[in-house]
Design a protein that fits this description.
Rossmann fold, Alpha-Beta Plaits, 14 strands, binds adenosine-5'-diphosphate
């Protein structure tokens, strides 16, 4: 059974349909990147999944429990780090985590154990006595993650967890997320593409409230180097002649001089040799990368580009 099954979620703010009929699942072992430009509806979706905002339409099932009908049991399975971490800066790390443990109804006798485990997993072993307000932003974010995992939930939802951190802190938090992904299903909500590439095994793109793309990262990365090459020739032959090159499976013309070819020859030596032998005037031969960035731009900027082109 999936950890999360969300069906046809809709959420309005006034007349504005901020989340527009979204359905997806989160499976055990997933670190799902939930990607979208600002205002796409990511936070609204996360608030609904974590039980902090009711959908206007749709259903959310958390590991067998309906979030709307059985919120206590469903919510017990979720740890949530909102975009603005709910930290009390005048508390020490230990005080705050103990308070969160109580909110999650962890048994009194188990609070210290839960607290130590969460601190260890987030690299906060030495920080228990520190005032949260005196910690660096990276460490405050670790505390935010520690409160999300204090009750050992099956699912962790992290909303923009690295925003405002420096590059070293970002690296540390990403490593922590990968580590947590070994034991939990994770949804990582972000607008940072390299973050998804570095951390996630699945990706979904949301734009204007709608889910517009879904893929396994492995499939996506396969396409990066899956034998697609862009070739530019000064004296291009006919497409039929390009098809005659050994190991060529497909040829598409991009313009008069540039073609997208697919070859089963990994290093494209066949294409380079043919171009030189036939004196086609080889200008460029580069792997054609179908990157997440391209997909993201195509799917989320398309409308704006058209608008600009028309104006
Ligand atoms: P994201 O997290 O992808 O940046 P949000 O879910 O925060 O997007 O917002 C989606 C849309 O809903 C945006 O147009 C935003 O302005 C609007 N919105 C978000 N929260 C509220 C709110 N409390 N009241 C009115 N509109 C909101």
């Amino acid at each position: 059974m999936p950890l999360i099954t969300a069906n046809n979620l809709v959420r309005y703010y006034g007349d504005h349909r901020a989340v527009d009929d979204i359905s997806f699942t989160l499976k055990t072992g997933d670190i799902l990147g939930f990607l979208g430009p600002n205002g796409a509806g990511k936070s609204t979706t996360m608030k609904m999944l974590s039980g902090n905002l009711a959908p206007n339409e749709g259903e959310i099932n958390i590991n067998g429990f309906d979030l709307l009908d059985d919120p206590k049991r469903a919510k017990a399975l979720i740890g949530y780090l909102p975009e603005q971490p709910p930290l009390y800066k005048e508390m020490t790390v230990d005080e705050y985590l103990a308070y969160c443990a109580k909110l999650h109804r962890i048994d009194k006798n188990r609070i210290i154990e839960a607290l130590e485990l969460a601190k260890t997993r987030c690299g906060l072993e030495e920080s228990g006595d520190r005032l949260i307000g005196n910690l660096s932003k990276g460490y405050q974010q670790r505390v935010g993650i520690a409160q999300a995992i204090i009750h050992s939930p099956e699912i962790i939802i992290l909303d923009e967890p690295t925003v405002g951190l420096d590059p070293n802190q970002i690296r540390e938090i990403r490593e922590l997320i990968i580590e947590l992904g070994k034991h939990h299903g994770i949804i990582l909500c972000t607008h940072i593409l390299p973050e998804v590439e570095a951390v996630c095994n699945r990706v979904q793109i949301i734009n204007k409230g709608k889910l517009v793309y879904e893929a396994d990262m492995d499939d996506l990365l396969d396409k990066h180097s899956n034998g697609f090459y862009e070739i530019t020739l000064l004296r291009p032959p006919s497409i039929n002649q390009l098809y005659e090159i050994a190991d060529i499976n497909n040829v598409e013309s991009i313009n008069d001089n540039t073609f997208l070819v697919h070859t089963s020859n990994v290093n494209a030596e066949n294409i380079a040799n043919a171009a030189v032998t036939n004196n086609w005037g080889l200008v460029k031969l580069i792997p054609h990368e179908h990157t997440l960035e391209q997909i993201f731009i195509d799917l989320t900027l398309g409308d704006d580009k058209n608008k600009e082109a028309k104006s």
